[in-house]
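[SOLVED] Need 3D model of a two-part complex

Original post:
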Amino acid sequence: MTTINQNYLELQGSYLFSEIAKRRTAFIQNNPNAEIISLGIGDVTRGLPSSVLNAMHAAVDELAEPGSFRGYGPEQGYDFLVKAIIENDYKSRGIDLALHEVFVSDGSKCDVGNIQEIFSNDAIVAVQDPVYPVYVDTNVMAGRSGSFNPDTKRYNNIVYLECTAENQFKPSLPTQKVDLIYLCYPNNPTGMTLTKDELKVWVDYARENNCLILFDSAYEAFIQEKDVPHSIYEIEGAKEVAIEFRSFSKTAGFTGVRCAYTVVPRDIKGFDAAGNTVLVNDLWNRRHTTKFNGVSYVTQRGAAAIYSPEGKEQIASLVNYYMTNAGIIREGLASIGLEVYGGVNAPYIWLKTPSGMDSWSFFDKLLGEAHIVGTPGVGFGQSGQGYFRLTAFGSLENTEKAVDRIRQLTL
Amino acid sequence: MTTINQNYLELQGSYLFSEIAKRRTAFIQNNPNAEIISLGIGDVTRGLPSSVLNAMHAAVDELAEPGSFRGYGPEQGYDFLVKAIIENDYKSRGIDLALHEVFVSDGSKCDVGNIQEIFSNDAIVAVQDPVYPVYVDTNVMAGRSGSFNPDTKRYNNIVYLECTAENQFKPSLPTQKVDLIYLCYPNNPTGMTLTKDELKVWVDYARENNCLILFDSAYEAFIQEKDVPHSIYEIEGAKEVAIEFRSFSKTAGFTGVRCAYTVVPRDIKGFDAAGNTVLVNDLWNRRHTTKFNGVSYVTQRGAAAIYSPEGKEQIASLVNYYMTNAGIIREGLASIGLEVYGGVNAPYIWLKTPSGMDSWSFFDKLLGEAHIVGTPGVGFGQSGQGYFRLTAFGSLENTEKAVDRIRQLTL
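Solution:
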């Protein structure tokens, strides 16, 4: 009898997106001529920049002949890409990293999902609420979550750090001992950020309390304001206590091309049961080389092209396109008195639903009356109740049209 | 204090390939003019077929414009690829599979490494010896292996199924209760296969003893003989007890392009602690969608092109190229009285070292006297001691030259 990983039974159904799809389908059946605009998904829609396309074509050509063919590459990524990452994303901000501190992967979802494996199964995990579900689900699978409490709709052994308008979506420090803290800035879903001083509080806390920050920075490219740190390593001492996750998905339109990277500094110390020091970098390297076989060569060449002068300009223009949409949504909604957050340093707009509606009621109203699909905030956690997420990843035309429709609603 | 996953400390150093690199480097330092030929690595060397290249170029072009852009795809793979897989790799052999029984991934190494996650941590694991190290290492990381015994050089809780010349590299059934059995056919490293009748013994055993077969079939494309099954599902009842792993890496030269797939039939039942049935397909789907974000669109289009009429011809020609090499090695070595195995249905040749030399002594002799790098069999497990692996993935010219050199050795 093959027994299964019992922890999987504690996973809650991925209710959010299936429920959205269900309600959308039902609406379309009753309103076959409605022109629905989706501001719900977190996926990009623009074409890839020509610098990336050219690099990918050239890489495909290289694979044609034995002389230039590339088979297995280094699991951690080719040096040409790792060097470009370090030079452009870190050294330019005064942060030194060694080649073997950067691990190229096929996606941040994989990395933030897999990272927990290298830590003890009894580590106490803290997450922001609302939260990207992968942090929670992967810890449920590993058995760190404890049972799901149907009353609180939370897992008993996970520490939830609430982020609401009351605290400007800036969580308080944990009041109990935790080992791993997932922080996401610029935040998905709220679109909010921390200043350097605010992030320093977390780094100092981690150093004083011997915990580790898992810093998901997938939306870094969208930062516009000066005082918002682009990397957690801009904070002194962070290299001892933080792992940083970055992605090319939203930065460069790589959601279908698949490339990301994770920084695991050699300064991070873990401890075994006997109290001996073990370098977390060594553990991640072992995991990465044992369970992963490197990113497609074609993809890595495409990613490296982003760092060319032409690539940088094109990426900036892509980011600007989406941030223009974000501004249109943000200002359009604010102009009719809605309480809106995010959208300044992130492609997500987080709004407080009007008149105390719950998230799903607002979903139904927006779909029914404006033919717009968004994402109910409660889908990201209990602290998301009464909030709603819109994304800036649509076309400019659809974004303008959607905002016009919302402005005409009676709220 | 962040405590680590203590199981990682039981991992043994990846001694094999670092030791090979060390001895090779030392040799080159002392013999800078020697022309070394590597028949050691398991990586392909030919260029990609034009059908694949054309499909990849076309896919890159699609990503240029919003109208044809592809962002996130289904984590399980696009239907166009899954349908091609089912139609060509299974239906053509009389095997019916549903779309949701096939999971496209970025590599078999990932899949065979990750599959253990969905089973209980106290599952008893059986592996062939010699063995592809990933099966063992990923179970060590999960805590299923028990301690490493430095005397036997084996893990205490893993069941090793010995494969030597004495049993024609066909392991005996386990004599103790096991839950998960990793079988690899055509085998890496021995290059040997099972007939249908021989594989049926394992399927029947698994059905009678409620265990699961994890069938690694990465080298399926190299099968030449009629009685060798291409899929474990050719055996009646296998859909209830076997997960099958396939790869495009060696089939089509995708080691740097990254694509594979795993078949998890809906008929496989797992059991929770209370004895309730849980579909293993559901568990793997949940794992795959939570920790993985799909294979690069460009790669998937390239993989699908393999199934076009032109693609099939080109793949057959690639396989033929490598199998010609295999024949040259096999026959060349046999002609001087060496005991050789494999190389008929697989790109690996497994030879018994002459005069009772141990694997590393033969490595040194081959490198020192013939300037050829191969892989010591003992690196794959204790039952590989006194054996040696050569691969057929080099160029025809180098393969012929290498065999000529070996023929001139005094053995």
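Edit: The first strand of chain A starts at residue 37 and ends at 38.
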